[in-house]
Design a protein that fits this description.
With 193 residues, the chain is mostly helical. It folds into 2 domains: 8-91, Rna Polymerase Sigma Factor, Chain: A (Orthogonal Bundle), CATH 1.10.1740; 118-187, Arc Repressor Mutant, subunit A (Orthogonal Bundle). 68% of the residues lie in helices and 0% in strands. It has 8 helices and no strands. The longest helix is centred in the first third of the chain and has 23 residues, at 20-42.
């Protein structure tokens, strides 16, 4: 007999009935994706953790007040909250997002091999550093789509909903980002291994 997993709507209902473990399950389902997207926007672990906590405080307050709309998907809704908080942070002008060359977090895995040797590891590291520096040079709208698509592993439909643009606009921004990355690679004479 197969056990059917509990969906987000059921977990929310259980949480509102007092089951704290139900909220923990929701948190476990989405925490990595939400934290990763926040971190990649703010490029600061402490700030990302603060914004992440703020996201879940807003979620708890909205659920408890009965204002959550079940028509949307919980994950997309939570990502929209995190996105809006990141945008608010940057609008306040406290900091411009950067992709740092020495980031220990590495999800942009463009080379896959089962047992890389030392030379392959060095080449992979250099490739990732080059890609991160090129992404940081993109205009904000293009950088945002690249981060959401490749770092947060979101579909273009999810990106369009999150950034409140059409799917064609999201696709266009990705297209221009790739064109710009190619131009930057040519200008800087960067070759990816």
């Amino acid at each position: 007999m197969q056990v059917m997993p509990i969906n987000d709507h059921q977990l929310i209902a259980q949480y509102l009935e007092g089951n704290e473990r139900a909220f923990k399950e929701l948190l476990d389902r989405y925490q990595q994706k939400i934290y990763t997207s926040i971190y990649l926007f703010v490029k600061d672990e402490t700030l990302a953790e603060d914004i992440f906590q703020e996201v879940f405080i807003k979620i708890i307050n909205t659920l408890r007040s009965g204002k959550y709309n079940h028509e949307g998907k919980f994950g997309q809704w939570a990502l929209r909250i995190s996105y809006n908080l990141c945008v608010d942070y940057h609008r306040r002008g406290k900091r411009r997002p950067h992709v740092h060359m020495n980031d220990s977090f590495d999800i942009f895995d463009v080379i896959s091999s089962h047992d890389p040797n030392a030379e392959q590891l060095i080449m992979r590291s250099q490739t990732h550093d080059s890609i991160r520096s090129l992404v940081d040079m993109l205009p904000a709208e293009q950088r945002e789509v690249v981060i959401l698509r490749h770092y947060a592993d979101m579909s273009f439909k999810e990106i369009a909903a999150l950034t409140r643009v059409s799917i064609n606009t999201a696709l266009g921004r990705m297209r221009y980002a790739l064109i710009n990355i190619r131009k930057l690679m040519a200008e800087k004479e960067i070759q990816l291994q």
